[in-house]
Amino acid sequence: MNIKTILPIVAAILLLLVPYLAPSAQLLVNLALAKGLAVAGVTVLLRAGQVSFGHALYFAVAAYSGAFLLAAMPGAELILVLIAGIVGAAVAGFFVGLFVVRYRGIFFGMLNLAFSMIFWSILEKFYHITGGADGKRLPRPAIFGEELGRHDFELILFYVTVVLVFALGWFAIRWLDSPTGQLFRTVKTNETRLEYLGVSPQTALLRGYMLSAVLCGTGGILMGIAQGVVTPEYAWWVRSGEMVFIAVLGGAGSVRGAFIGAMIYEFVRVYAAAFAGDVWQMLLGAFLLVIILFAPRGVIGFLEDIRLSRGDKTEAGR
Amino acid sequence: MNMTLFILALFDGIAYAAQVFVVALGLTLIFGVMRILNIAHGSLYAIGAYLTVTLTGVALAAGAPPLLTLPLMLVSAVLIGVILGGPIEWLLLRRIYDKPEVLQLLVTFAVFMILEDVQRLVWGSQPYFQAAALQSLGNVTVFGVTYTVYQLILLPLVALGLLIGLRFFLRHTVIGKLIMATTEDREAAQSIGIDADRVFLLTFIVGAALAGLGGALASPTTSILPGMGADMIVLSFAVVATAGLGQIGGAAVTALMIGLGRSFAVYIWPEAASLVPYLIMVLVLLVRPEGLFGSPSARKI
After folding, report:
1. CB–CB contact B272 A279 (8 Å)
2. Strand blocks (E) in chain A
């Protein structure tokens, strides 16, 4: 058994026990996992060497899709709200993806940024539809027709989140290792060879882009339901920056790292805010600088270095 | 839309474009020379505005005439460039020039986060107003529309002066030519004895000072409050990307396009005002990925 098998099993057991061992941390862990899904979306694109500075778009599209559904159908089923969010993100990812997959590097990042800022402006200014800066409420959805109390609902939502994290995380890892995923990863190393092989890098990138949008969207809708409200801030560029930041913190390109990164980030954020009040952002920025300057491969890279120095060289360099 | 409103929108657009251009100029200069997209640029802009308001307040309290507040803007800009810009390049950016793009972006993002809190610690979160510089120059009436001399004449003149000045500096002075040579080929430049480290340091200081100057110039026309840096950075990104990264003259044209587009939207369809710059950016980039004035780069195989 290597670390890549043990890690998820240990993580799963720990997560399942959270509501019993540390109930006060349940909501925080829930939000961190939702954010982790979004970060996993950014991570998938990093595998193709592309940095999106606008993925908060899918986070927000999904959350607002859920909010609109709940406004039209009060007390809709949780599963229906989740599907609405994910479908919303997938559709948006497809249409934006059609345009952005033609670009690489800084232009890819920029164009994504522009699309997310357009959506942000719409959310902010067309307040008669979107609720403006106050956002939209997401009333608690029903589960199998039952209107649950807050405690029970949050418990179920927590487990739904855990299941989705493992299912989608596993799928993303498998997809990246699949033939399509390998093509997708070749966009980073040698795109021209793909064309020589008669493969369209654009199509490969679009598929990966849709996957990343769906991961991000799932995170967004879960976050929206957990918080009970969505605001235009969900689509704000600083959110996108935060996602890239967490992706690098966990280990750029590692799906597992995305969740580790999100967990560390949320805990540092919450405790920095509790103990340092006004300067939490400064602490987080300093923390980020230290990571980039001294451990540019993130937490996952750091763990691998430790493993390598112990002489276990079987599965190096991923 | 009647004639008066049209002229008003035109003047608004020109004044706004001049402000944005000064900030975008610094951003595009830094990118052009150093290949770094500086997210902290927005914070330097905001701190430039705060510093100007503070210095102006001190000067006025000491009995200085309102006209003296104008040179104070230049003082703030230089202070921002030297005190903030210099150390950022020297302590941080210097370590990451050979790292992947995403890490470079994140270093400047981290600096942005740190500076946002520095600004909040020093100036708090209440808004500031200081319009002494705006009032000191009085008004002018053109085509039956009364407008401030500061916004209609001074701002565009400063923007134009910087555009011409910077182009002259880069093409016709020795230091400017050294910068251009380093941009073209860093290794070759170093091999003939150019100190590339100093060129980068100087460029970053100038770029940061331009961000500070942009903030200083904007300070008398708006209220200064937290979040203004984050707003400005995306807007100047839009200008710079639409023009083509590193295109100095192009940035002037796109700043004008975006400034006018936004100010006409304010009068015609106010909800869309903040949307227009990004719409222009998307439309341009879809047709010309390298920006309006950028040249397509050769494909690497």
Report:
1. no
2. 136-137, 229-230
